[in-house]
């Protein structure tokens, strides 16, 4: 008989802690990096919920990440990271 999801998560957490592995690697948590006010990089995202030049909402395993600003655009997009440029005013989880 296989392990339950809860048991698997607990095992991943114990292994991660034992080997000092980053949580974003073992638990697929999002990594958001701001480079000044002009660029944001989001890794480990699930999808784009809303996209316009003043507001971008991104689905992640930790919740919805919301970026607000002006003239924002998605400069680069691949399966596990995206780069947003523009005048970024705020970034936070809803």
Account of the 3D structure:
The chain is α+β, with helices and mostly antiparallel strands. It has a single domain, classed as Immunoglobulin-like (Sandwich). The protein is built from two helices and six strands, in the order H-H-E-E-E-E-E-E. The chain is elongated, with a radius of gyration of 16 Å. The model has no long low-confidence stretch (mean pLDDT 87).
Please count the beta strands (DSSP E, at least 2 residues each): 6
Low-confidence stretches: none
**Morphology call:** elongated
Listing every helix as H and every strand as E from the N terminus to the C terminus, the arrangement reads HHEEEEEE
Q: Estimate what percentage of residues fall within beta strands.
A: over 45%
For this structure, what is the CATH class? Mainly Beta
Tell me the structural class: alpha+beta
The rounded Rg comes to 16 Å
User: Which fold does the CATH topology refer to?
Assistant: Immunoglobulin-like
Q: Overall pLDDT, averaged?
A: 87
Question: What would CATH call the architecture?
Answer: Sandwich
Biggest β-sheet, characterized? 6 strands, antiparallel
Strands of the biggest beta sheet: in what spatial order? 1-2-6-5-4-3
Helix content: 10-25%
């Amino acid at each position: 008989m296989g392990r339950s999801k809860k048991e698997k998560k607990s095992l991943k957490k114990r292994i991660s802690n034992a080997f000092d592995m980053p949580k974003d690697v073992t638990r697929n948590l999002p990594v958001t990096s701001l480079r000044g006010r002009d660029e944001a990089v989001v890794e480990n995202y699930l999808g784009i919920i809303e996209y316009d030049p003043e507001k971008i909402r991104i689905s992640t395993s930790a919740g919805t990440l919301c970026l607000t600003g002006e003239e924002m655009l998605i400069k680069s997009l691949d399966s596990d990271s995206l780069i947003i440029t523009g005048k970024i005013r705020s970034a936070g989880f809803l």
